[in-house]
């Protein structure tokens, strides 16, 4: 799919008229079916960039799963997972354009002290998640506090409510008693 997107969709944004022509539809139908009140005014669409993000992200998810499933070495796996997380953030920032300058700054700072970092949640200025080794966790938290949150006026008392560490876990499940 990635090669198909690169071959078929052009890099320049598609004008609304071009989208209408390609889909064989009307402005009214496009607005009603595909757009919202907040997006009806948009006159150009970055179809190639958005499609590349979606398909490349799906490939990263598959690689992430495969790396976890075929765990040959912890260190090698963690490096791979961190790299995939960082690539994901770059794609979210550059192709999907759902990041925010402050979030990019936070992720950039995180890259220096972690195995990888990316935005998470809905984007547009939300949260970041980072893969950090236990050995560097305290140094990383101190760096976040002094190089990022202090500039925002966050004091030591409020910091723990904004930044916390956790460890991988089994996740949600349904328990059915016998």
UniProtKB/TrEMBL annotation:
ATP-binding as UniProt keyword: yes
TM helices/strands, residue ranges: none
Pfam families hit by this protein: GHMP_kinases_C
This protein's record includes keyword Nucleotide-binding: yes
Molecular functions (GO terms): ATP binding; galactokinase activity
Ranges for domain GHMP kinase C-terminal: 75-149
GO cellular component: cytosol
One GO BP: galactose metabolic process
Lineage top rank: taxon: Eukaryota
Record keywords, A-Z: ATP-binding, Nucleotide-binding
This protein's name: GHMP kinase C-terminal domain-containing protein
Organism: Ignelater luminosus
């Amino acid at each position: 799919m990635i090669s198909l997107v690169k071959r078929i969709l052009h890099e320049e944004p598609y004008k609304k008229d071009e989208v209408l022509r390609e889909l064989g539809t009307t402005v009214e139908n496009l607005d009603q079916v595909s757009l919202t009140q907040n997006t009806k005014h948009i006159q150009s669409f970055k179809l190639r960039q958005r499609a590349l993000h979606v398909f490349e992200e799906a490939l990263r998810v598959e690689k992430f799963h495969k790396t976890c499933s075929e765990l040959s070495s912890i260190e090698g796996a963690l490096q791979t997972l961190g790299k995939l997380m960082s690539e994901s953030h770059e794609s979210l920032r550059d192709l999907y354009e759902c990041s925010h300058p402050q979030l990019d700054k936070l992720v950039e700072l995180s890259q220096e002290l972690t195995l990888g970092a990316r935005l998470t949640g809905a984007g547009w200025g939300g949260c970041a998640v980072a893969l950090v080794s236990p050995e560097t966790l305290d140094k990383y938290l101190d760096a976040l506090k002094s190089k990022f949150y202090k500039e925002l006026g966050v004091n030591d008392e409020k910091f723990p409510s904004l930044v916390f560490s956790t460890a991988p876990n089994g996740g949600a499940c349904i328990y059915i008693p016998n």
